Every structure is written in structure tokens, then in C-alpha cells.
Amino acid sequence: MHTLFYNAQFFTGTETVEGRALLVSGDRIEGFADPAQVSADVRRIDCSGNLVFAGLIDLQIAGGGGFLFSSNPTPEALDIIIRSIVSTGTTGFLLALPTNSADVYKAAFRTVAGINHPAVMGLHMEGPFISNARRGAHAPELILKPAPANVDAILGDAAGTIRMMTVAPETCTHEVIALLRKHGITVAAGHSNATFSEAMRGFEMGIETTTHLFNAMSPLHHRDPGLPGAAFLSETAMASIIADGIHVDYSMIRLAKKIMRERLFLVSDAVEENDRGAYKHVKKSDRFTLPDGTLSGAKLTMLDAARNCMKMAGIEKYEAIRMATLYPARLIRADDRGVIAPGARADLVIVDNEMRLRGVCFNGVTEFKD
């Protein structure tokens, strides 16, 4: 079925388009058209003059709809998680799986391998090969040494479900990084106590990005710039950042953006309230913590993050949108996401002038918000 989106300003990821309509066939974009020249029997959706751009991409979200995936790695829970996340405008995501037991990993791998849902782009393994010194909210007893045998065991069980893995570069050999990349995994540096030189060596070995910049890593210090300094000075490494004003001060987000430009992108790092398993998250008014008060996750959607970048960090609107669409899709080589272009997925977000969500088109089906 063909659908025509009209009466909208479109942002493709590279340019704005006005006075045209967007033609969609099934779950794919065909391109822009003159609405007057499109067949009358095409379904038409009036976007009420709002802004339309590609569905948001979150490379680190741990749950939704009341379920933390690592504590509920079942198909039933994942179905609820998916519907909850997509309803916020995030139409493609990696499920974040924190350092955990072999049994939890295996259950998560089975569920993700069997779900076959276009919103689930794979798993982001946040661990288990991380630094105990910078573990943050991760369970110390579950951290593993990144020996090739340990990596092989996880990759064998995962059966291709892992899309990204966060590791501490100071603990990894070139062999380990090469093994992960051989399996098509985007390797990130994070939960790391790496010195500047250790972090730069990690990027040289093939680590492509940094997980939640500034959080759970060696600090930016004038005598050793640490992992943040390495991310700043790398020519190619990207970095995710949590734009809630709690994990990172907005002035630091602004500074990081001025240095890294299109290498900086957004993640939600959102969790859910949970009282079972290795990760017990307590919901606060604006964040999640462990029972002892340790900051454990964000209470944030990707649209919130983009809006915060605009209003609080002085980032231009379309650049904030790219940080939540084009740039994360580019990092994991999801060429058919994060843009409005012929052949791309027909996953779209409709927002008003205040960047408030007004509608979501996912897989070619549109639902409007009240």
C-alpha cells in the first residue's frame, strides 16, 4: 500500500524539504512527490504543518514498559519493551545488556534471536570485559577477563545477536578487538580506567566509539586526559553522551560537541524500575539509582535528549536531530535508517515546534498522539 505524507516540513538528515509530499510504499520510502500528481487512491496523511524526520535510533537502552530486559529476558517482556520504546519515537534500538551471568546472557541471546522484530537491531553488551575500578553500577563479581577463550564462548552463544560491545581498552589485546570486529561487532570503550595512551592505543586497534562519555571512565585531567581526552583528540572515534543534565552537565555536553562535532551522538541509557536479578533500580523523580543511591540509569527518551541538547546545551535543532538519528545509524552501518531517502525504512517521527511528539510512523503504520 502507498501512503502520502503531506502538509509537513521534512528534514531528511541533510536538508529540509518544504512544499512537497513524501511517498511511502509499505515499509519503505519511495521519495518526494508533488501531491497534486499522486493518484487519488493513495492513502494520505495530513501532518498538520509539523516537522517530520527519520525515526530515532538508540544504541543503549535497557528496557521499557516496566520491564528491565536483563531481569526479564523473555519474548513476552521484550514484546512490551518494544511497543513502549517505539511509542516514544525510537524506531530502532540496541538493547543494553549489562555485565551479567552466563545464564542471563544465554536467555537474552535466545530471545533476541527469536524475536525477528525490525525495531530490535541487536544487543549492546555493556560488559563483561570492563574495569572493576570504573564499573559504576555493574556487578563486580560478574566482570570477566577479556581472554580470547572467554570472548569466543560469548560469541558462540550469541549467534550473531551482538551488534555492539563496550570494553575497557586497557584490559584488551589486539587479538580480542580483532575477534570482535571479525564478528561484525562495533567495539566501544567504556567502563574504563584507561590512561590517555591506553585509550588511544585502543582506538588504533579498532575501537570505534566511546560509551556514555565522561560517565564510568577515567576523568579528563590536565596531567592525563584519560579516555575523554583520547576521544576528543582521535580523528575518527565517536562517542555517545547522555543528555539529561544529571549524568553530564549541559555545559560539558556543549564543550564536547564543539570539539567532536559530528562524532558525538546521543543515547538514552534508560533503565526501568526493577527489584530482581543483578540490577535493582530505584525510580527517582528524574533518574534511577541503585538501592545505595549510586546513579544507575537515565529517565530519558531519545526525543527528550535531542530537545535538551537544543534548549540546554545550545545545539542547533537539526544537528540535535542528527545526533539521535543519522550519527548512531552511521556508526553501526545501518544505512537504511536515520535518514529520509529512497529505499530507507519508512520509520518517521512527527513533532511540533516545541519538539513534542505528535505522531510515529513505524514499519509503514502511523499512529498519532493525543
Task: Walk me through this protein's architecture.
The mean pLDDT is 96. This protein has 10 helices and 23 strands. It has helices spanning 75-86, 102-115, 148-158, 174-182, 196-205, 226-233, 250-260, 302-312, 317-323, 326-331, and strands at residues 2-6, 9-11, 16-17, 21-25, 28-33, 43-46, 51-54, 56-61, 63-64, 67-68, 90-98, 120-126, 162-167, 186-189, 209-210, 238-241, 264-266, 282-283, 287-289, 295-298, 348-351, 357-362, 365-368. It is globular, with a radius of gyration of 20 Å. α3 (148-158) runs parallel beside α4, α5 packs across α6 and α8 (302-312) runs antiparallel to α9. With 370 residues, it is α/β, with parallel strands linked by helices. It folds into 2 domains: 2-53 and 338-368, Urease, subunit C, domain 1; 56-331, Alpha-Beta Barrel (TIM Barrel). The strands form 5 sheets. It has an 8-stranded parallel β-sheet with strand order 8-11-12-13-14-15-16-17. It has a 6-stranded mixed β-sheet with strand order 3-2-7-21-22-23, with no helix packed on it.
